[in-house]
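Quarterly update from the structural biology core.
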Amino acid sequence: MKQAQIAFIGGGNMATSLIAGLIADGYEPRRLIVSDPDRAKVDALTARFGVRTTDSNAAAIAEADTLVLCVKPQIAPAVCRGLASELGSRLSLVVSVMAGVREATITSWLGTDLPIVRAMPNTPAMLQAGAIGLHASPQANATQRNQAETILRAVGMVRWVADEDLIDAVTAISGSGPAYFFLLMETLEEAAVALGLPGEDARLLTIQTALGAARMAIEGGDPPATLRERVTSPGGTTEAALKVFADGGLGDLVARAAAAARARAAKLSDQLTEQS
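Predicted structure, tokenized:
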């Protein structure tokens, strides 16, 4: 994997995060090349990481073993169709972090039957703390799957799904999920202020509590239900609060919210497919 030449098409936040993670893992910067029409953006990437950059997609993929598509879905058709006649014989894998673009759609745009791994990262990937869902097309072999996993693991935890349609569920849970936790922190902070705590104290106590709870869930290995039970004493304050959540139908509300996000993700994918 360390010998692969990786071409990134698009030099935005996700490409930058992947490059930062790969280099932190020991990847050779000169084996990474980034193409983006924004000259200031690619110059900044060269200065920061020492990677090669260009404003030509054709030049970026000329010697690439792996192509990573990091462009917005709105411009993906034009970008991919423009790459179709430029794909080199060395290229063996396409990794897509384009939200909502199905593998069959990418294949039709590129005009090739290359193996494709589709990735659904989330915004904490920019801090190398992402949760990423992956799906591989049938053409991808074990080596190519490992290559894709190595790239995405540089920015967080990865999990494979067996059915591409499950990427929509990943989108609903981890893709949109940070916003759910931000909303809970926002409302908990507001509740703390209403109880009389100063604003800064309310914010810091809320954020640190969220961080501590997440660390306990990750590092302890116990499921959230077990952790919840351990801090819920019979007749205590936590039990009183959790009863209000239960009476308000929190579980059903979360399930309906996740279902709505999944349905929206599927609809957006359908729209991109129709436009192709």
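The mean pLDDT is 94.
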